């Protein structure tokens, strides 16, 4: 996994935590930290989380190393 994908994954996790807080407690952490939903910094964070989600969409279709290996490795 590349550095960009790891950073995107971190942003996606932050977004998921924020949505969990909104769903369970009606508390938007990003808006609370950066000055409301319409504040420029909040909108930037929301946008970055959205882009991160799109980047992570590629991980869904990336085969894992275990799937790529069709036969067990043997030593001869």
TrEMBL record:
Signal peptide stretch: none
Transmembrane annotation, as ranges: 7-34, 40-61
Sorted UniProt keywords: Membrane, Transmembrane, Transmembrane helix
InterPro entries: DUF378
Protein name: DUF378 domain-containing protein
Protein's organism: Priestia veravalensis
Source organism phylogeny: Bacteria, Bacillati, Bacillota, Bacilli, Bacillales
């Amino acid at each position: 996994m590349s550095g960009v994908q790891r950073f995107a994954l971190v942003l996606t996790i932050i977004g998921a935590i924020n949505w969990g807080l909104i769903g369970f407690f009606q508390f938007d952490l990003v808006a609370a930290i950066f000055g409301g939903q319409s504040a420029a910094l909040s909108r930037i964070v929301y946008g970055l989380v959205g882009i991160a989600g799109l980047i992570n969409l590629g991980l869904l279709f990336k085969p894992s190393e275990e799937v790529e290996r069709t036969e067990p490795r043997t030593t001869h």
